[in-house]
Every structure is written in C-alpha cells, then in structure tokens.
TrEMBL record:
Reaction it catalyzes: S-adenosyl-L-homocysteine + H2O = L-homocysteine + adenosine
Name of the encoding gene: ahcY_1
Cofactor: NAD(+)
Any one biological process term the GO annotation gives: one-carbon metabolic process
Protein name: Adenosylhomocysteinase
Keywords: Cytoplasm, Hydrolase, NAD, One-carbon metabolism
Subcellular location: Cytoplasm
Cofactor mode of binding and number, as noted: Binds 1 NAD(+) per subunit.
GO cellular component: cytosol
EC id: 3.13.2.1
Amino acid sequence: MSDIADVSLAYAGVKRIEWADRTMPVLRQIRDRFAAERPLEGLRVAACMHVTTETANLIRTLQAGGAQVALAASNPLSTQDDTAAALAAEYGAQVFARAGIDREGYYRHIHQALEIGPDLVLDDGCDLVNILHLERTDLLAGVKGGCEETTTGVIRLHQMAREKALRFPMVAVNDTDTKHMFDNRYGTGQSTLDGIIRSTNTLLAGKTVVVAGFGYCGRGLSERARGLGARVVVTEIDPVKALDAALQGFAVMPMSEAAKAGDVFITVTGNREVITGAHLAAMKDGAILANSGHFDVEIDVRALEDLAVAVHRGVRPQADEYVLADGRRLVLLAEGRLVNLAAAEGHPAAVMDMSFADQALACAWLAAAHATLEPAVHEVPKEIDTEVARLKLASMSIAIDALTPDQEEYLRSWRLGS
C-alpha cells in the first residue's frame, strides 16, 4: 500500500521517467545486467530519497535486480507527485511521498517505508537510518547494510560510528570520485543556479554572489556563477579549502564581511546557522538567500522571522520577501530548503546517472559482502567507481589509453630509476 497524492498522474509520470532514462545510459546498462544476474533477489529495500524521475530509474534498476522496494521522500518540497504515482501504479514500488507534506507526515512516511522490514537501506540525509537506530530498533537485526547519498548524511554517519552507535555497515556513496565530480560539482553547480534564476529571474552578471563552503558543491557553484559574470566571494572555515578558493581567483572573507557586500547568498556546507541573525541584519536591501545544503538549517530562518516586521509570501515562485524595520527587504528562496530541488528540478538526469550507478552497484556489493563488513562507514570499492566512469566514457564514445606491460612493471618496481 502506498500513500501518494493522485494516482491519475501516473501516465504523466511514466513519460517523465522515460525521458530521464534517455540520458541515463550507465544506469540503463546496469539495469540490463541486474535483470540477467539478479544480485538482489529476494531482498527488501527501504529508501528515503528525493522522489524524482532520476530516483525512479534507480528504483527500477533495483527491482530489475530482484529487490522489493519501499520509498519515502527525503524532502517534501522535492517530491514530484506524478513520479510518485508512476512508481506506485506502473512500476510496482511502495511509495510514501506527497509534495509539500508537513513535518509530521514526512516522518510518518519514513516509518511506513520501514514497515517493509528492510534487508538494505538507501538514505539521503540519514533520517531513515536515524529513525532505525532511535525508534525502530526492532528492525535493526534484519538490516544487512545501506548506502548514504549526501554529504550531510555521511557527516551524521561518521558521528554515529565514532560513538559506536552504528549497528550495520553503511557505504558512503557520496564520497566516490564520480559522485564528487558529476553530482556535487557539476550537478549542484548548475541546478542551484537554475533554481535561483527560476524563482527570481535575477541577472547574475555583475552581482556579488557569496558561496558559503568550498567543498565540491561550493567549487561547482563558484565556477558557474563566475561563468555567468558574477563576482564570487567564498566563505570557509577550512584553511586548505580557503586557500584553494583564493588561488582560483575567488575573494575569500568571513561571512561577517561578506554579509555587507553580497547580492546573492548560497549556503552549501552541511552545517547549521551558517548565516545568522547578525549576518542578516547587515545585508543590503534586496539580498537573495538560498540554501543548497541538505537540511533547512544553514540559514537561520527563525532569526529572519524575528527581524522582519512583515513577510510577503510568494512574491515569486518559491520566494518569500521579509521586510525589516528600516524598510530593507531580504528574499528567502524555498523556505531555506534545497533550492535546486524545491525551485528547480534538481540535477540533470545525466548527472544522476553517475550517482545512481554508484548506488546500484554498491547495493549489489553489499548484498554479497555484508557479512564480512564491520558496522562502520565504508568507502565504495574503487573498482565500482572505475567501472562507472568506464561505462560513462563508453556511452560518450570516448576512448582512453591503457598501460602497456612495461609501464605496469615500471609502476610496480622500486628498483628502476631515471
């Protein structure tokens, strides 16, 4: 049994899912392989992920491998109701997701997905894993392992592991080279700016764009904002990343200084209160606030509400205007939630092709290897990352060189010098 908004949307959802599938050739090849090999035969998978067309194609791949899947949404603003309907009505998944559902409904849906009694779990932000460990401990013994998709979730998992709280192995899919490169850098870079432009129709050329955080996502954002003609300011807490940003030609300063200069602010750190009330109070009239971190805690929205004497909801799609006592206006996008999914469509399917290929192959690896793994955070095996990159290159008709036997021998030997 599913909980979706409108089953009549299923036909439209199928069309969108199939459109996305056209630009997901790697996942399509893995789906064909899974259908032949059935590496997930008889396994139950509970997933908490963005309910989008790209995720739907991952679910189809897991099903082709023999899995039974129950899916809950990892963000109520990113749920595509037509996709949810198609997955439930046409593709045979259990789906618990409705666009815009409240906090109580969000957590109810995760609990409903867990009723499948999972052997494997897929998470995007660690909420499902968190609930398993805090509220549904009766299910823990049956969980063989799982995968985590995003930076925020990996941070939480590492803390659980440090505290010896994690009860089963989790694979940090987020940390693969292919996901860092495609998903975090190119995907977040493009889709975040897409969401900002859709919701505000602002011209970025000539604007000062402040990017909080210079990890892979922050780098992608900074590069693409500069490409659109913006002056980019980076804020960081990590000296190495700050130095990297400076050497790439970006201005680097504390948020207390950047707050006075910025026209557009984008948080992408995985931490809370990156933009505080003091920062908000210093911002110029018309400043735009967007978050592309997983949870809606990076911008202190409560402080913004306290500063405001009036709030104009929906001045643009996914844009609310907060009026301060002196007449200055600050525009918050997507309620401080993931702007690229709430105000746009998230990453292009070609980007998620890589991430979900990693995800699918990691699930198959876990199904085979879980008994040998400790309850800890594990890296995706290098051969999986390499295989995904190889398949992607092949789909792009790109060939690369291979080592000759002499070159392999040279790399293995310490005796050969100059």
